[in-house]
Amino acid sequence: MESFSYLGIVLLTLISPLPTEVIMPLTGFMAAQGKLNLVYAVLAGVLGSVIGALPWYFAGKYLGEPGLRKLSHRSGGWIKVSMEDIEKSKYWFKQYGGRAVVLSRAVPGVRTFISVPVGISGMPVLLFLFYVVLGATIWDALLAGSGYVLGDRYYLVKQYLGPASNVVVAILLIAVVVLLFRRKTRRANKSKSSLSAKKLESKL
């Protein structure tokens, strides 16, 4: 980051094994030292997220799951695809649509592979980019801002904000349970209504 400045943030977001929860608080710390501009640092992180999401989006759109499996196998392990994460991302997207793209920025693993089911679904690329930019801006700004406030204790951000992804998952799971319960209740009410109508018709 010191060598390449904002380009370094983009590159780290793209190719580094370090998660955003480590990279962005460090940018906030460097901004507090006057080495970076906080706004530009967040924008660089968002740009890295967008560039990193597009290949998975187009892979989902043009290759699908079977194509990704073949690509992973033929690459000899250079391209690693977690089908478990893709399945989880598919479930998220099926339940929440575009909101899943926004919320997934707070969940490592899902934030990458959510692009695959979005591409498979045929969502317009501009709409997809809107959701990615929105989610990445919120999450990156929160992480970088926390690092800015904490200063040389920026490394504590991951310790405290890392569990936030678990909170997001918990909220989504609760929402799914509520949604399923409502659907089941509606179906039960419909079946009762249809039975009542049939009984009334038989009496008439």
TrEMBL record:
Cellular compartments annotated: Cell membrane
UniProt topology in membrane: Multi-pass membrane protein
Annotated TM spans: 6-26, 38-58, 126-148, 160-181
Swiss-Prot/TrEMBL keywords: Cell membrane, Membrane, Transmembrane, Transmembrane helix
Main localisation: membrane
Pfam families: VTT_dom (PF09335)
Domain VTT: 18-148
Annotated family: Belongs to the DedA family.
Name this protein carries in UniProt: DedA family protein
Organism: Trichocoleus desertorum GB2-A4
